[in-house]
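Q: Joint fold for the lines below.
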Amino acid sequence: MTHKRRQALYGYAFISIWLIGFILLTLIPMIRSLIFSLSDVTITGAEGIKTYPVGFNNFIEILTTDVNFIDALINYFSEMILYVPVILIISMLIAMMLNQNIKFRGLFRAIFFLPVIIVSGPVINELLNQGAGTVPLIEQYGMLEIIQDQLPPFLADPISSLLSEMIMVLWFSGVQIVLFLAGLQKLPTEVYEAAKVDGATPWETFWKITLPSLKNIMLVASIYTIVMLSTFSNNVILTRIRSMMFAADGGYGYASAMAWIYFVLIALLLIVSMLLISPPERIRKEKGVKRYVSIKK
Amino acid sequence: MSQLKNKYKFKKTLFGMNIQDGLLFKMALYLMLIGIGFVYVYPLLYMLSVALQDLSDLLSPSVFYIPTKLYLDNIQTSFQVLNYIPTLLSSLSVTLIPAILQTLVASLIGYGFARFQFPFKKLWMSIVILTYIIPPQVVMIPRFVLFNDLGFIESILSIIVPATLGQGLYSAVFILIFYQFYKMIPKALDEAAQLDGASPIYIYFHIAVPLSLPSFVTSFLFSFVWYWNETYTSSLFLGSNFQTLQLKLLSFVSSYQDLFPGQAALIHEGVRMAATLLIILPMLIVYMVMQKLFIQGIDQSGLTGGEA
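A: Joint structure:
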């Protein structure tokens, strides 16, 4: 046996378990889910599952008549567009504070990471129901009313829900803080010293050195944030999809179509945020030329 | 002259040579960190305080956070309602077993991707990463149908089988952690072993696994925590017969009525917060013991740098 064939054989042997799992539990289910979404699915006791192809009827029905679902989607995505950057910015700020020369860094980091361990659908539910999801000060000073009065509703609603669930936003930042902090600690101190010698202010060093070097981590953190939020068990869209599985006016086909609509929107959100954080080469090149020149000087 | 010098010195300690080492900056920094830290633990403090209050304390406007006496009835009641010890054991069984299996399998898969050259490797690797993004609800319905046919529904198999085949909860993350780690081990190590006639399987078990114990610990811990906190698919697959602590919390009111018929009105926030406290308690204990390992785990996962 040649070296190359041995490599291929052993490689496939090691990943075979994943390959089998992927085909059986992800690829085939995805195809089936696509077929379901294009069909009317009935379940009969004797014959099991029967599908009648109905074309895009499920999708059309959802998009034209299911007002509740569409409303929930719009609400959900306007919240996501607000939450994701807020979570990223807050976790980066906290990481930068922790990266200063301070005492008890380990303790603070441990506190900020703690929620990751305990955050779950039912627990968050209980906390929000009992009013422990918001900082008492925000309610006492009537900040929510001020926002509702002063801003147009399409801005006021997401912002006030953000404020009233501020603790939850922070609770979803634990992993990101640790990611950013690890990234900050890997930055070479010489660069900062050189910048200081050249008379750069902290403000300038942040924009010119810190932020660009955190780009990869920003990317990982944003993907993580979107995936975590979009799969969290309390998610209204998810609960609706699951309840539609067994609803009289729903069924597997209808619920599958909902799941695909949701998936496409999440994928779009991921792509947009990836493009925003690291624009593709073609756009970057124009800036790159300038950077090259300035280094040469 | 000396006055001026003193003034300068004072200014220097207050504002520092540059902004970041002055006393004012430090004070503001600590204040903000403490403030944010308080916001982080506020829900927990609230939970603890309410769980320890009896009804009169809860209703009394003069009692804010500190209960007038140590009152443990809420905890006792919710302990009973949750059927705590048996439920805890069944929770542990559906989290520990898949977490262990998922970690072991992720290590094998990660090793395969990191150490061998084979056709379509890039394609499969990118699919591994893509599976992280595919939301569970897309594959959930067909999996439900499949598991229903196989009789896995309402059994632990519905959680274990996906974990064993590398399709469990966030499996891609763990495969990636192992992949990153095994790529860092110098190839010279196993080339030497190969010359001595060791097979790849021998090398995996005798060289790679012992070196990667930290990755095993990280993957296991995160896997364990995520399985513990996941309720969306597990509530569908495990059904209502298989009770875990999280699912029991969801149906707390009805469980309460089963145990104390006709007394539903007596569930007050004290009891509910006590129940919530009991749900997160095992994780709090795990975290207190292994806090460092969690955070080091992320640092070592290779997700924070190196990959461009």
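Q: Anything notable?
A: The longest helix of chain A spans residues 3-37. Residues 3-53 of chain A form one domain.
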